[in-house]
Amino acid sequence: MTRGSKSKFCAEIAALILADIAAGISLCCAADRHGITRQTVNEWRRRGKRTGEADKAYRQFREDYQKALGQGMYKYELCTAAAGATDAKIALTILGKRWPQVWGDKLEEAKRLNREMDEKIETLRAILGKLPDSPQERS
């Protein structure tokens, strides 16, 4: 399909895009990888809302797209769980940017808590800095 042409459904390209989405790749990147625009994919999804017989393939694509999104999110959530032991901040940042409607608030809450913790650490450092270094100096 040539860019700028009519939004004709292509089952082969649709399957490739769905596989990318299920792997956690963004719609924009998946569409670009397969030579179509994000707008074309969104048009296919919009046509999936229609009930006519001619729109049956689009309806199936719309349903499969929703499933693929869930699979992609599941993989990132597994990543978050695995990264939690070492660096959950990275995984949470990825989730917050990829699915802001689900994870955005959690990302902001984590940032707020990090700022509070940094302030408390600085306060403790200031207090510790005022203490004598050796036990003899303390007495």
Report what the structure shows.
74% of the residues lie in helices and 0% in strands. With 139 residues, the chain is mainly alpha-helical. It has one domain (11-138). The protein is rod-shaped, with a radius of gyration of 24 Å.
Q: Let me know the average pLDDT.
A: 84
Strand segment count: 0
Question: What is the distance, rounded to the nearest whole angstrom, between the alpha carbons of the first and last residues?
Answer: 82 Å
The main β sheet shows up as: none
Q: What structural class do the secondary elements suggest?
A: mainly alpha
Report the C-alpha radius of gyration, rounded.
24 Å
Instruction: Tell me the number of structural domains.
Output: 1
- In which range does the helix fraction lie? over 70%
Low-confidence stretches: none
Figure out the total of helices: 7
Overall form: rod-shaped
Q: Brief description of this entry?
A:
With 139 residues, the protein is mainly alpha-helical.
